[in-house]
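User: Here's a structure from my thesis project, written as structure tokens. My advisor, Dr. K., wants to see whether a designed sequence matches the one we expressed. Can you design one independently, without my sequence as a hint?
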């Protein structure tokens, strides 16, 4: 393949002399070429380059959202540490920071205070002095939602609406997600679909579009709009049986959705869960904590009639098998202790034992749970690493917040990798594991071909 630069693409166009060029199927890089190609007289098929720029340019996009009365997290830009401190203070911590024009969330971080922001700015601005650093308000404990839609310029059809299992702030490529959503109300789902249609029509999308939303209570925020195919298109197409990329290509060539037989979104009688696959076991010393920078290298899909069972299948496919017996080790940050209580209760009710560090144990015992206590590494032996080495731990739940806590608990996650103990580093992941365990204990797995799922709706 030739590199995706303007010069190389123009050379190919000169030889091939195509009627038009599709820029929607190559991720972010081809979108950046849409306007330059049009200036060179190349016909762009599908969404017009100016419409693409309207979605990509932060200032124009903000104006578009304001016109539609839609919300996005407060944001700003900075070229220096001093500017960043001012913007961070105006927006309020925590904030999400990233250099402009990066792929895969590279160099993206969540910072919780002014000192961390200054440190980030000194590193980021050195790395990319010609581009500003983007600063957005980070919405704590929000649910992230991905929507893939196809439009012919008149009709907009929702291809799939996915609820992320990990909270907003985890890179969308690293988060597991469920199609259809497993916890959102019908009212919220309906509003998200309505906003998706409004955005597609206002932008003038012809072809595919992906939108990422954050839901906090009854509030819906728009994080990002991409007028192109996203990485979730293959998953959505396989889950629903609707070949979205094929339909979008025909639409970009001039066909209408009605002609192609797609006028309403697919109705599903099953749940499909996409889970990310990580290469951590191949890189010693890498931390498994998830964040806004993408770490996964692949993905798998689990499918069943029940969310818990579909999630269990996806985890098994990703070599993170959910245990049906044994000890579950829990060590979580203070703010997660109230929400870990019902999760720990589910594990105990389903016949597993819970072992925790002293702080978590004290909280759970106060609330009536019978849990075991194990030493941290620095507290003496036997400690949690000894239990992992002796294969006395079947599953690990470990959440951290500060850099110091992350460093202190690194040995737990490293031992889990080394001894192949399944784990999760998010509360939302732990909640899904508890549901999967309950499903595996109380229901039967459905074994059908993908075609049988599609034919049954």
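Assistant: Designed independently from the structure alone:
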């Amino acid at each position: 393949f030739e590199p995706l630069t303007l010069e190389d693409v123009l050379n190919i166009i000169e030889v091939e002399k195509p009627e038009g060029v599709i820029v929607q199927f190559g991720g972010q890089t081809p979108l950046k070429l849409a306007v330059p190609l049009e200036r060179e007289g190349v016909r762009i098929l599908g969404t017009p380059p100016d419409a693409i720029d309207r979605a990509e340019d932060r200032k124009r996009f903000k104006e578009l959202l304001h016109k539609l009365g839609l919300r996005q997290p407060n944001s700003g830009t900075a070229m220096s540490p001093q500017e960043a401190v001012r913007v961070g203070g105006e927006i309020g911590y925590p904030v999400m920071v990233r250099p402009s024009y990066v792929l895969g969330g590279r160099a993206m971080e969540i910072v919780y205070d002014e000192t961390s922001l200054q440190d980030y700015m000194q590193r980021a601005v050195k790395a990319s002095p010609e581009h500003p650093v983007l600063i957005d308000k980070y919405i704590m404990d929000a649910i992230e939602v991905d929507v893939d839609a196809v439009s012919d310029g008149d009709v907009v059809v929702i291809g799939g609406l996915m609820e992320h299992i990990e909270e907003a702030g985890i890179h969308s490529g690293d988060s597991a997600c469920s199609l259809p959503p497993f916890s959102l109300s019908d009212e919220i789902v309906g509003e998200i679909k309505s906003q998706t249609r409004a955005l597609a029509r206002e932008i003038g999308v012809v072809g595919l579009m992906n939108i990422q939303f954050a839901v906090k209570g009854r509030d819906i925020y728009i994080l990002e709009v991409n007028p192109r195919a996203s990485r979730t298109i293959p998953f959505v197409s396989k889950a629903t049986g609707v070949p979205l990329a094929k339909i979008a290509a025909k639409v970009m060539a001039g066909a209408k959705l009605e002609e192609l037989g797609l006028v309403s979104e697919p109705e599903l009688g099953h749940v499909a869960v996409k889970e990310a696959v990580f290469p951590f076991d191949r890189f010693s010393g890498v931390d498994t904590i998830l964040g806004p920078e993408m770490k996964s290298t692949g993905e798998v899909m689990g499918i069943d009639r029940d969310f818990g069972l579909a999630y269990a299948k996806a985890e098994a496919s990703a070599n993170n098998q959910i245990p049906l017996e044994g000890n579950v080790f829990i060590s979580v940050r203070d703010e997660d202790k109230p929400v870990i209580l019902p999760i720990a209760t589910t594990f105990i009710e389903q016949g597993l034992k819970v072992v925790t560090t002293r702080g978590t144990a004290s909280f759970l015992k106060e609330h009536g749970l019978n849990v075991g206590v194990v030493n941290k590494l620095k507290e003496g032996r036997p400690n949690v690493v000894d239990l992992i080495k002796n294969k006395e731990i079947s599953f690990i739940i470990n959440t951290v917040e500060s850099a110091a806590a992350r460093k202190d608990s690194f040995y737990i996650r490293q031992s889990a990798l080394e001894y192949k103990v399944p784990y999760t580093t998010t509360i939302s992941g732990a909640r899904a594991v508890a549901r999967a365990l309950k499903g595996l204990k109380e229901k039967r797995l459905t074994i059908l071909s993908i075609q049988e799922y599609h034919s049954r709706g």
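When you compare it with your expressed construct, this may help: The chain has a mean pLDDT of 89.
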